[in-house]
Every structure is written in C-alpha cells, then in structure tokens.
Amino acid sequence: MITNPELTAARAAVPEIADAERRLQAAEKLLDGAPTTVEPHAARNAVLDEAADAFMADKPWPKDVGKRAAKAFEDAEATELEFLARKGAVTRAEWALYEALDAGTEDVLSALGARLSELLDEARSDFTALRGANSAEAAIEAGGDAVAAWSRLRGIVQSVGHVRASQWEVLRGPTAPGEGMRGDWHGRNWRLQGFGHVQRTHPDEVPDAVRAVMRDVSGRVDMGYVRWLVAQEDAYVPASVDALEGDIAVLTVPAGMEDWPDISPRELPTRPGRPGDVYAHSRAAHLDISQPAPPKPKPTAAHPDGEPTTRDYF
C-alpha cells in the first residue's frame, strides 16, 4: 500500500486513478471476507474415511454416507468457486489500476508539480518570517512569528521530500500485476546525477550541500535544500520522462558542440521566377492539332556555338 501522503493525494486528484483504487480496495475487502476453503476431494474423502473408521471400530455402517460425502464435495466446491470469483475480481481490479496509472502518469506529475509550487510559496513566506534564523535556537531568539514559522517549515521540508520521492516513483512507471521487482531503470542514473529538480540548471552548478541532497536516492531533503529551492525560479516536477530527458539533453551538450551552427529547418523566401530563354530554333508548343500552329516565338537569346562533333567530319 502507498505510504507517501503526497503521492496518495496526487493520485486521488486524477478521477480515473481514484476510481480504480477504490474498486481495488473493495475487491480486496471482498477477498478478505471469503470463507475458508477446503479442497472438494479432501472434504469428500473426510466423510468416507469417517465411515471406514467407524466400520473398523465395529460401529454400524452409516446409511447416508454417500449423501453426506456428495454434500461435503458440493459445499466445498461452491466455497472454492466463491473464492476464485473474488480473487478474479481482485486481479481485474489490479490490471484496471495499472492501466489507469500508466495512462494518468502526466496528470499525476502535474498534480505533484502544483503541490511543489504550493509548498515553496508557503516556505518562502516562512523563511521571511525567520528573519535569517537557521536553527530552532535562533528562531526562539528571534521571537515573534519565527518559532511558528520554523515549526511549519519542518513540516514543509518533509512534504517536499515526499513530493520528490513521488515524482521518481511516477516517472519510473507502474508495476504490472505479478511482475514483482522491476529491473534497472535508466532514470536512476538521472536521479543519482541530481537532475529533475530545477530546469536549465546543471547539478554541477549548485552548492555542494544541495547537490548531495539532489543525488540522494532516499528522497530525504533538509532545510538547506528547501531554502535554496525557494530561491530558484525554475524549480519544477518534470512533466514526463520525455520532457526530463529533453531537459537533460540540453544541459549535457558534449564539449565542442556548443558553437555548432544552427541546422534546424527554417523557411526561405521564395525566389521570383524568370522567363525561359527563347532561341532561334525554338518552337511554341502546339497542343491542339485541330488548330493552326502558333507563330514562331521571337528569339531572346543566342545559342553558343557547339564543339565540333563527328557529324561535322563524316
């Protein structure tokens, strides 16, 4: 189950995902309430063994042993089918949730981005209230609203960490039912390098302490990271894997390629046309043989003398 409150809220903001999660929870509740099953053949054999044990103990043979064995088999089979039906509902609900999560990836990331902006706005005003205090003791000394602001900031820091952990889980994509642990994902390298926090800023350009937080795969952040983040105009949650990959490509142009000419397609102006040259041997096109041939056009250019050919000598 999801234990990240920010991820829970972001998924709940997408109606299709919220409906799929509600159905899955209902199906799992049904399965939990299913009666205990006994394999039908085992239930039937238990009745038969009971009759045989009674016979071996010199007790009277039960006249209804066949009916009781058949009834035990039938009841156990009905219970087993009820369990299978409920389990099938859970499987269907799991696949429906997987498809909803896969289709709603960008919507969830958008909700996380809006939440990050909200948290940073709150943090910005609280940092102003701190009046430069960078510890609980300093906030107490500052007095006024500083203590309350410091308390709120501790909660904001935790929420920002949840948002960052959520964004990487969503970017990784949902796990299909029965898939188990997923293999390596190339996005893990992006996370280890510190990308995905601020657009148009390479991780190597940020302070060392902040860069260490950005590269921490545990998702934990600290007050210094949040203080730095609120000062960045381009703090964001990537809109998709493709968008993140594009941002990284811009920031990691290989050395020596920065001054390459722009070879992107561009529209050129249309050149004005000019009439073709007309030579002494030129003829106007005679398209309609039912009409007289058009007059010979007036030459506008002279054809240069050609090089002598074999025809001139033989």
The span between the termini is 98 Å
Structural class call reads mainly alpha
Give the ordered list of helices and strands. HHHHHHHHHHH
Overall helicity:
55-70%
β-strand number? 0
| Low-pLDDT segments | none
In the residues, how many domains can be counted? 2
Shape: flat
Please describe the biggest sheet, giving its number of strands, its sense, and whether it closes into a barrel: none
The number of distinct helices, counting runs of at least 4 residues, comes to: 11
Rg (C-alpha, Å): 39 Å
Q: On the 0-100 scale, what is the average pLDDT?
A: 88
Region (Disordered): 259-314
Biased composition (Basic and acidic residues): 304-314
Give short descriptive properties of this protein:
single chain, 2 domains, 0% strand
Question: Secondary structure elements and their pairing?
Answer:
Blueprint: H1 5-12, H2 15-32, H3 40-56, H4 65-103, H5 105-130, H6 136-142, H7 146-172, H8 187-193, H9 208-214, H10 223-230, H11 241-251
Helix pairs in contact: 1-5, 2-4, 3-4, 5-7, 5-10, 6-7
Kindly summarize this structure in a few lines:
The chain has helices spanning about 5-10, 15-30, 40-55, 65-105, 105-130, 135-140, 145-170, 185-195, 210-215, 225-230, 240-250.
How would you sum up this structure, described in words?
The chain is mostly helical and 314 residues long. The chain has helices at residues 5-12, 15-32, 40-56, 65-103, 105-130, 136-142, 146-172, 187-193, 208-214, 223-230, 241-251. The chain has two domains: 5-103; 105-175 and 191-251, no CATH class. The termini are far apart. The model has no long low-confidence stretch (mean pLDDT 88). Helices cover 56% and strands 0% of the residues. It is flat and about 135 Å long.
